[in-house]
Design a protein that fits this description.
The protein is mainly beta. It is built from three helices and 39 strands.
Length: 555
């Protein structure tokens, strides 16, 4: 009787996790690599020739919260005795060239916001900065900070308009075209001078198959043609994060049974970059499920640098995840010709780091704890259960380097823990690490970090407190500075309002959920940072801004 009940439950669970078309996506014992093709593909018209759908806000009085699904916090462990590190403020002035900032998608350029959070991210190409938030994106001129004019195919007029996030999928069909669910990522593929745009789709109607929609431009023009692909998932592919690698576009997904279901673990995937660049119709993806144990919140390495510094096609992609007092690192070798030869480490390399406490923790769960001014201000979520985007990779010839950050508890507030890792193909280790938290009692969170070709590091983030509105700030370090140190903090944008909740109507603790620091492909020196702030104390009323800056010793 008990055995029969076990079999029935097992079969129900197995059927639940079987993907569409009979292809098994849940990993078998040993984390097997699964391969399958895109469910849909085409090549779009040039964006200039599409009939554009301008962003339409939710109807008056209706607001949308893009809910983040929290991850289970790892149990506190100390795999190797590691001494604590000193919490730091700045170690000296940070003198940089700064370009005039400009307003990104948000209220600052007339975009009516009725959703939260923006999920702000962007990337720079040769001429443009493309920024994408949850429901809309803009193509900005890097030099002027203005939206680039696009010709209306009906009138012939040159207009500067924001575009719906799903404008990329016009005429494509399916959930990609008819939903605009967000969690967007935009990357400039420096190795091919192409744009990579991705967002998930799960609505209309909700439920499986869920989709990841990926578009790859046919040139360096972000308003040109795109090869468009839909890849299906039978379980909910939340919080997708992408990285460019020579032999593939790689991504991680926090996988849930459905939009409101149980957490399964992380799915790591490789998308067939060569075929997507060629707009081929049989591009495939290879995925591995890290479900047993259920690892969460991994990031794929994303290449920064010049083509001459790229790793070889045979170099495995690297993934890093956050664990208790350690980082976990996986190497993923993908063979597109013979998928059965593709391999992912069965067990991650454990990299001990200085001890830290997860922020905003209540038992084994996270609660909102980021303070803002005002009695009615909503406490904000720290997203301290995961690494913050991006995991930035750079090859200096004599060494490879990864930089990444996450939010940690510092006393009764939060700070930014950051790392530089090296020896990625051998025995990965921490070159340097630090916790940045000046002694002012402010909360710092939603960070993003990257490194220029000289080895200088920029770290951008949000800062807030009971008497300081959420603002955009940054710090950084010169490559010659003492290891583990950052320079003084600088303020990029002073917030002038808190995000509040209207009792009985609109409640949101969402802020972020991510920001973005990226490198300019033209000089490999200029950092582009984009993030969120508010100019007034209201609900669902955010702005974003874009900043360009460069260390003076990087030419």
């Amino acid at each position: 009787m008990c055995f029969s009940l076990f079999v029935i439950r097992y079969l129900r669970f197995a059927l639940l996790l079987m993907p569409v078309l009979g292809l098994q996506q849940i990993a078998a014992e040993g984390q097997d690599v699964q391969s399958f093709q895109a469910s849909k593909h085409d090549k779009s018209k040039p964006l200039l020739k599409m009939v554009r759908r301008r962003p339409e806000p939710a109807p008056p009085g209706k607001f949308v919260e893009h809910t983040v699904r929290h991850l289970p916090l790892p149990r506190k462990t100390y795999p190797t005795p590691t001494p604590p590190i000193t919490v730091q403020g700045g170690s000296g002035p940070l003198d940089m060239y700064q370009l005039p900032p400009f307003q990104g998608v948000g209220r600052g350029i007339g975009y009516i916001t009725r959703s939260s959070p923006p999920d702000t991210n962007g990337s720079a190409g040769p001429l443009e900065f493309v920024q994408w938030v949850n429901n809309a994106y803009g193509i900005f001129d890097k030099k002027t900070g203005k939206l680039k004019p696009i010709k209306d195919p009906n009138t012939g007029h040159m207009e500067t308009e924001l575009l719906d996030g799903n404008q990329l999928w016009q005429g494509f069909g399916g959930k990609c075209e008819f939903s605009n669910d967000g969690d967007p990522i935009v990357l400039y593929d420096k190795l091919a001078s192409r744009w990579v745009m991705a967002q998930f789709a799960y609505s209309k109607p909700a439920g499986p198959p869920y989709a990841e929609c990926i578009a790859v431009s046919s040139s360096s023009d972000p308003a040109g043609q795109y090869a468009r692909y839909e890849f299906d998932f039978n379980n909910f592919n939340d919080y997708p994060k992408f990285g460019v690698w020579p032999n593939g576009y790689y991504a991680t997904f926090n996988m849930f049974e459905n939009e409101n279901g149980d957490f399964f673990g992380t799915k790591v995937c490789a998308f067939e970059r060569a075929k997507m660049l060629a707009a081929a119709d049989r591009a495939s993806m290879q995925c591995v499920n890290l479900y047993n144990p259920p690892y969460g919140g991994l990031l794929p390495a994303d290449f920064d640098g010049l083509q001459s510094t790229a790793p070889s096609d045979q170099t495995p992609e690297v993934f890093v995840g956050l664990d208790a007092n350690k980082l976990d690192l996986w190497r993923y070798h993908v063979d597109w010709d013979e998928p059965r030869k593709s391999t992912l480490d069965r067990n991650p390399v454990e990299i001990p780091v200085a001890p830290f406490d997860f922020p905003c923790q209540n038992g084994d769960k996270q609660i909102s704890c980021i303070m803002q001014p005002g009695d009615s201000a909503q406490k904000l979520d720290s997203l301290g259960d995961r690494l913050m985007y991006r995991l930035a990779y750079r090859n200096f010839g004599s060494r490879e380097s990864l930089v990444v950050n996450h939010t940690v508890k510092v006393g009764d507030h939060t700070g930014i823990r950051w790392y530089e890792l090296s020896d990625l193909s051998g025995t990965p280790s921490v070159v340097q690490q630090g916790t940045f938290s000046p002694e002012d009692g402010l909360f710092r969170w939603i960070g993003s970090i990257a490194m220029d070709k000289k080895g200088n590091i920029l770290l951008g983030y949000s800062a807030s407190g009971s008497s300081v509105y959420p603002s955009i700030r940054f710090t950084g370090r010169l490559h010659e500075d003492a290891l583990g140190t950052m320079r003084n903090e600088s303020i990029l944008m002073i917030g002038q309002g808190s995000q509040v909740s209207t009792v009985g109507q609109y409640v949101t603790d969402r802020w972020g959920d991510y920001s973005s620091v990226s490198l300019d492909p033209e000089d490999d020196c200029t950092f582009w940072f984009t993030s969120q702030y508010q100019t007034t104390t209201e609900t669902y009323r955010w702005n974003t801004a874009v900043f360009g800056m460069r260390f003076k010793d990087c030419q």
